[in-house]
Amino acid sequence: MSDRSATAISCSNIAFIKYWGNRDNVCRIPATGSISMNLGSLTTHTTVTFDAALTRDHLTLNGNPSSSQALQRVSDFLALIRKRTGQFLFAQVSSENNFPMGTGIASSASAFAALSLAASTAAGLTLEEVELSRLARRGSGSACRSIPAGFVEWRAGHNDDDSYAVSIAPPDHWNLIDCVAIVSQEHKSTGSSDGHPLAESSPLQQTRVQQTPQHLEICREAILQRDFDAFAKVTELDCNLMHAVMMTSNPALLYWQPATLSIIHAVRAWRQFGLPVCYTIDAGPNVHVIGLQKDQDQITKRLADIPGVQKIICSSPGGAAHRADG
Ligand code: PMV
Fold first, then answer.
1. 154 lines ligand 1 (CB under 6 A)
2. Which domain holds residue 207?
3. How far apart are CA 232 and CA 167, in angstroms?
4. Which atom of ligand 1 is nearest to 109's Cα?
5. 294 and 210 share a domain?
6. Of 148, 172, 196, which residue constitutes the final position of a domain?
7. How confident is the model at residue 49 (pLDDT cuts 50, 70, 90)?
8. 160 and 185 assigned to the same domain
9. Are 116 and 145 in contact (CB under 8 A)?
10. Gap from CA of 288 to ligand 1 centroid (Å)
């Protein structure tokens, strides 16, 4: 392999039916399927160059050398590609998020989706969407959902071959908006890779896993029918169930801050009084408030009035991971 370079762009995503817990922590085969929407305003732009002159992999994040932990994770991922191609060159990886780092918005989904496409292309592979999604899953489970466009379902499967995500509706199918209310910019104490293995220690995880197929069905139908009421109900239920599992695992994970709860109460009241909105929360304190694009100004104004809300970033449904260089 001579020096080869490729650049890719990918969106982050927000799950409506959540992924928490693996059947296989190494291959990241999830305990349940999940459904998400790509976030068009939150993207990662990554260039990978395999270079015969390098003696190890290098990683820069937003122009700065990365931590050794982040580099190790990227290197382990690149090793999968080197094994697949049988060519063992090291790479220079440069990755930039268009959203401010340290806002507490997870970037691993967009990061590993963009890395999968850029690195596989730079290594001379041409992967179909399903293969790319499977590869991205190995870097970060939720990254497999950032490969296809719009509204996406990750079919849990049972092994490396049959666990991947597919688009269930294109970005323009439903004019939803996700307004992330940022209440803390601190690095979370337990990241999701360390959190997934704890799920099984919760007495509630088994119940959650049993109920998820039903939630997937309701959420998929609600999206296809653009039925906001049904969508809001199942999205909040599934979020609460995941956080109940987190709060009851050993050790317990409590990601919410006081402002998280203030937003939950506000969103429930707004919906009761006629505004179509609902909330969902990942492994952190920030709240994703989902509504209709026509209500974006009203949602952001109301969120900005809640004490503790530091910043609000809104996204419409985003497209598929794509090449930025050809
Ligand atoms: O892909 P990971 O390992 O960062 O896990 C993501 C976990 C959640 O964000 C909490 C839920 C989800 O489905 O995205």
1. no
2. 175-315
3. 20
4. 1
5. yes
6. 172
7. very high
8. no
9. no
10. 14
Domain boundary at 118, 153, 172, which? 172
Q: Is 51 helix (H, G, I), strand (E, B) or coil?
A: coil
Contact 48, 5 (CB under 8 A): yes
The SS3 assignment for 154 reads strand
Domains of the chain: total: 2
Q: Are residues 154 and 218 in the same domain?
A: no
Distance of CA 151 to the CA centre of its chain: 12
Co-location of 231 and 242 in the same domain? yes
**Burial tier of 138 (Cβ tally within 10 Å: 0-12, 13-18, 19+):** buried
Are 47 and 118 in contact, with CB atoms under 8 Å apart? yes
Give Cβ neighbours of residue 104 (< 8 Å, ≥ 6 apart): 182, 183, 184, 185, 186, 188, 284, 285, 286
- Which stretches of the chain are DSSP H helices? 68-85, 108-122, 129-139, 192-195, 205-225, 228-247, 258-272, 296-304
pLDDT at 1 over 50: no
CA of 76 to the centre of ligand 1 (A): 19
The predicted model scores a pTM of: 0.97
Sheet of 311-315, strands arranged across: 278-280, 287-292, 176-182, 311-315
Q: Sort residue 92 into left (φ over 0), alpha (ψ -120 to 50) or beta.
A: beta
Q: Establish whether residue 255 lines the binding site of ligand 1, counting it when its CB lies within 6 angstroms of any ligand atom.
A: no
Q: pLDDT tens digits, residue range 182-233?
A: 998 877 778 888 999 999 999 999 999 999 999 999 999 999 999 999 999 9
User: Each residue of 253-312: pLDDT tens digit?
Assistant: 999 999 999 999 999 999 999 999 999 999 999 999 999 999 999 999 999 999 999 999
Instruction: Residue 213: give its domain's CATH number.
Output: 3.30.70.890
- Any ligand 1 atom below 6 A from CB of 171: no
